[in-house]
C-alpha cells in the first residue's frame, strides 16, 4: 500500500474512535471543581476549634504619663517704676546682674530737685524768722498795755478815795458842793481811763494770738514743703526694692524717664515657679505636693505642685503652679517641659483589643472550659492600649485579640 493511502486510513480510524460513546448511551463528562469559600467573617462550623490568644486579667492600677509645656514665673517679679521724672544720668548695673535690696540701680539728674529743695528751705527759714519777730513784738505791746492798766487803776482808786472823802467833808460842812462835784468828775474820768486801758489790753491780746497762729501755720506749711522736696530728691535715686536679678533695663543714659515709667525689672530667683494648664480631670489627680519632673533644654529639674484653687479659666484649663526644688537658673518667661504621672483608675487590667462594643455595651470573651464566653464589663479608664475594667474576676483568661468570627459558645483553644 502506498504511503498516501496508509495515512488516510489512519486518520479515518482516529476520527471514528473519537466519535464513539461510552457504554450506557451517555456522553462522558469531567466533574466541575468545587467553588472556593473565602468569607473570613463567616461563623465557623460548631465542630471547628478556633485558636486564640489569651491574657490573664490582672489587678493593678492604670497609670499614664503626661507631658505639657509650662512657663517660668516668679512670685516676686517687679517692674520698678520711677517715682519722679527726670533724665537718666547713670545706670549702675547691667541686665543679668545680681543686686541686693536697697542697691542703687538708676540715677536721675537731680539738679532741678536740689534747687527746689533749697528754695523750700529758704521759705521755711523766712517763716521761722517772721514767727520769732511777731512773737517778740506782741510781748512788748502786752507789757506796755498792762502797765497802762495798772496806772489807770491807781488813778481810779485815788480819785475814788478823794470823792468819798469830799462827800464826808461836805456832810460835816468842811467843803463846798463845788469841791465835791469836781472830785466826782475826776472819778468818772479815771474810771473811763481804766476801762479804755483794759479794753486795749484785751483787744491787743486777741490780735497777737491770731497773728502768732497764722505765722505758725505758715512755718508748718514751709516745713512740709521742705520734706516733700527732700523726698523728691531721694526719688532721683531708683533702688532695688528686694534682692534679685535685673531682668530688664528698658532705659538708657540721656533718656527722659517719666514719673510712673518702668526704670528696670527685678526678679527674685528664689521664688521661681512654673505655671501650666491641665484638664479638670487631670487637675483633680494633681493635689498639692505632687512631684513632677521638668526639663529646660538639657537641664533636668524637679518640683512639687503648690496650693491652688483649681478653677478652670476661660480656656477650660485649670492653672497648676509648681514650686521648683532648689534655686535653678531659669529665665522668667522661658518655656519648660513638664512631665507628670496620673493614676487613672484601679481594677482589672486588660488590653483594649479584648474589648468589643457591637451591641452598645462593652464586652470581652473569656476562655472557660475550652469555650469562649461573652462577659459584659464596665471600662473604668483606658490609656495606651490598656484598660481598667470591672465585671471580671482576677486571673480570668481574656481572649485578645478577638477573632472576627468568634461567637459566644464557640470552641476555642489557647495557642501561642
From TrEMBL:
Coiled-coil segments: 142-239
The Multidrug resistance protein MdtA-like barrel-sandwich hybrid domain, residue ranges: 78-267
Keywords: Coiled coil, Signal
Residues annotated as domain YknX-like C-terminal permuted SH3-like: 348-413
Matching SUPFAM superfamilies: HlyD-like secretion proteins
InterPro entries: MdtA-like_BSH, RND_pump_MFP, YknX-like_C
Keyword Coiled coil carried by entry: yes
A Pfam family of this chain: BSH_RND
Signal peptide: 1-23
Family that this chain belongs to: Belongs to the membrane fusion protein (MFP) (TC 8.A.1) family.
Name assigned to this protein: Efflux RND transporter periplasmic adaptor subunit
Organism: Deinococcus sonorensis
